[in-house]
Amino acid sequence: MEPIKGIIFRLFAVIFFVAMFAMVKATAGEVPTGQAVFVRSGVVLFVVVAWLISRSELSIGLRVKSVKGHFWRSLFGTGALSLNFAALTFLPLPEITAIGYAAPLLTVLLAIWLLGEQVKMFRVSAVLLGILGVAIIVEPRLTVFFDPDADNAVAIGAAIVLMAAFCNASAQIQISRLVRDEHPAAIAFYFAATSTFLAALTSVFGWVALSPTQAVLLIGCGICAGVGQICLTLSYRYAPASVVAPFEYSSILFALMVGYVVFGEIPSLQMLIGVAIVVSAGFIIIWREAQLGIEGAKTRAMNHLTDPATPSIDTEDASDGVDRDQAENA
User: Fold this and answer.
1) What gap in Å lies between CA 263 and CA 248, rounded to an integer?
2) Which domain holds residue 38?
3) CA-based nearest residue to 274, from 158, 130, 97, 107
4) Which of 48, 76, 263, 330 could be cross-linked to 171 through a Cys-Cys bond (beta carbons 3.0 to 4.6 Å apart)?
5) Taking the model in full, what pTM does it have?
6) Has residue 318 got a pLDDT over 60?
7) How many angstroms separate the Cα of 269 from the Cα of each of 94, 140, 272, 273?
């Protein structure tokens, strides 16, 4: 393990993903969402296939055990991607990034409901704290329901991002099932392929002829998404999830900088307060998971000492954790 390399790759992944959204935002309102998703996913598909070929892992990326699982993961994932792209027309980039932090919080709640996972009050309290932070962020955008003269476009944007967060959380639930039998490369490949196909169906609603600038931006968006995914995967090869996961929240810093410099977007104090609460809740959950992982590792180590037939944590359990985290972000 080389944690510094893992952190660097995670930061690069965050930068590429923020750049992806910034490029789409630059075309928002001019290029239909479905067309933007198609170009982005098509380029990502090319990047993923090229990377798998370079690593002689294409056969792994094409191997499927659960067609149904891949279908639902890809459907929810495409929904989340499309809704986030659509929201860029209505809301500032930093705000979309901040509201998107609701996804891992919703994942915890869905895991309790759909997977029957046992979650203790400590983690539930952290989730509720994070939801409070999200509520603080979106509250100014919901004034349309109380003020008939308010701009309803921003309310629509907030609702779209929240729906995207729900779709993202649902996709994570499907991934948590897929990683038991599927390789992360297969999950990434079929998501890119499915999202490209589904986005192509929207052409019947009318696509536009792309200008050279728009074409470059959307192709660049796909390249950033594909390279970001590779950086994300590499980050988990060099460092444990508990080390690199907190750096996901650096995305709000990059989004704030890009939003201000490129689009002239200035965040409100209320949004920043909400972001601080959501990020704090995320760090609490990550810290708790790390503590539980340490306690579990100690227990398995003791069991291994008392019963040599028990698998050691340095082989089976450690590798499974890395693969799971790679797949969850595919």
Assistant:
1) 22
2) 3-328
3) 130
4) 76
5) 0.82
6) no
7) 13, 11, 5, 6
Query: In the structure encoding, which two tokens stand for residue 216, read together?
Result: 């470059």
Tokens 């690593």 found at: 55
SS3 of 90, please?
A: coil
- Residue 298 φ/ψ region, left for φ over 0, alpha for ψ in the -120 to 50 degree band, beta for the rest: alpha
276: which 2 tokens?
């601080």
Number of other CB atoms surrounding residue 58 within 10 Å: 17
**Summary mean pLDDT of the chain:** 82
Rounded distance between C-alpha atoms, residue 61 and residue 187, angstroms? 8
Instruction: Note whether 56 and 119 are within 8 A (CB).
Output: no
In this structure, what DSSP letter does residue 88 have? T
93-111 residues labelled b (16+ CB within 10 A) or e (exposed): bbbbbbbbbbbbbbbbebb
CB atoms closer than 10 angstroms to residue 301 = 14
Tokens of 2: 């080389």
Number of domains into which the chain is organized = 1
| Position 322 pLDDT exceeds 90 | no
Question: What's the confidence (pLDDT) of residue 273?
Answer: 94
Residues in the chain: 330
Please choose, from the candidates 105, 85, 106, the residue with its C-alpha nearest in 3D space to the C-alpha of residue 195: 85
What are 148's two structure tokens?
């008939």
